[in-house]
Amino acid sequence: MAVDHERRAAMQRAVAALPLWPREVFILHAVDGLDYAAIAARLGIGIDEVEARFAEAICRIARILPSDEA
Q1: Measured distance CA(70)–CA(21) in Å, rounded
Q2: Which CA distances in Å does 5 have to 23, 42, 57, 69, 70?
């Protein structure tokens, strides 16, 4: 459907607009399905930093997407 395509495109734009580190963590978790421990090990950072970066990504995406898209 056109609406689904538009929503997917809006989400892709929102993710692309993220700064590097929040975007990397978001993709590794939400798209690739890695847990926080695996992401932390891969990126050489602590789990608390993974949590912070993922939270930042979610907040930024929520601000970018129209309210009915989030």
Answers
A1: 21
A2: 21, 32, 22, 12, 15
Instruction: List, in sequence order, the alpha helices (H) in the chain.
Output: 2-16, 20-26, 36-43, 47-64
Q: Which domain holds residue 48?
A: 2-64
Tell me the CATH number at 40: 1.10.10.10
pLDDT computed for residue 69 by the predictor: 47
Report the number of distinct structural domains present in the chain: 1
Q: Mean pLDDT, consecutive 10-residue segments, the chain of 70 residues? A: 80 95 97 98 98 97 75
- Give the model's pLDDT for residue 1: 57
